[in-house]
Amino acid sequence: MYTRPDTGVQNGSPGAEDETEATLIRLELNKSIEARKLNQRTGAPTTDPEVVIPYGAIVENVERDRDFERFTYLGEVYRCAHTLLASATDPQAWKAQGAPAAESAAPAAPSAGQPAPVAPGLQWAPVDSSPVPLLRAKVRGGWLIAAASGTGLTFYPDPGHEWDGTSLA
């Protein structure tokens, strides 16, 4: 028999199941990921190519397995790197379900007395255009132009940022 030093509970004694049972969680992906399918019986990776798990998919029974996360998607068992799954899920969802936090994907909390770091972001402004609504953001070396519908993105070189958004006719 083995006695756990942190709890004093022995394997095989009443209450041991509660102490060793893993917390299984359920997460929604906020981006697509690639994962390796595992053999149902042995848990070993198969020789099949990696499978794309799509944006919005629900992965269940997420468990840490060394540097990987093992999970179930549509009844099949998969694994991917912890950092990949952490970057494709909301860190708050991990905390809400009592799972080990996705610390590698979440920024560290600022220490007391120091301001939180400002995350860089694009400042999008509408561009006066005829039939297609466009947005532009000032970036190094020019402008990033996006269709407001989200269907297109391009870079317009303008190192001095002199373009006022009108046609150059």
What does this 3D model show about the protein?
By secondary structure, the protein is mainly beta. Among the domains are: 16-96, SH3 type barrels; 124-157, no CATH class. Helices cover 10% and strands 31% of the residues. The protein has a six-stranded antiparallel beta sheet with strand order 1-4-5-6-2-3. A hairpin with a 2-residue loop joins β8 (134-139) and β9 (142-147). It starts with 15 loop residues before the first helix and ends in a 12-residue tail after the last strand. Residues 1-21 and 101-106 have low confidence and may be disordered.
Short précis:
By secondary structure, this protein is mainly beta.
Considering the chains and any ligands shown, give keywords for the structure:
single chain; SH3 type barrels; elongated; 10% helix; disordered N terminus; mainly beta; 169 residues
How is this fold's topology laid out?
Layout: H1 16-20, E1 25-28, E2 33-37, E3 51-53, E4 58-65, E5 68-73, E6 76-81, H2 82-87, H3 91-96, E7 124-127, E8 134-139, E9 142-147, E10 153-157
Antiparallel strand pairs: 1-4, 2-3, 2-6, 4-5, 5-6, 7-8, 8-9, 9-10
Q: Which fold does the CATH topology of the domain at 16-96 refer to? A: SH3 type barrels
In the CATH hierarchy, the architecture of the domain at 16-96 is Roll
**CA radius of gyration:** 24 Å
CATH class of the domain at 16-96: Mainly Beta
Largest sheet: 6 strands, antiparallel
* General shape: elongated
Could you tell me the mean pLDDT?
75
Low-confidence stretches: 1-21, 101-106
Strand order of the largest sheet: 1-4-5-6-2-3
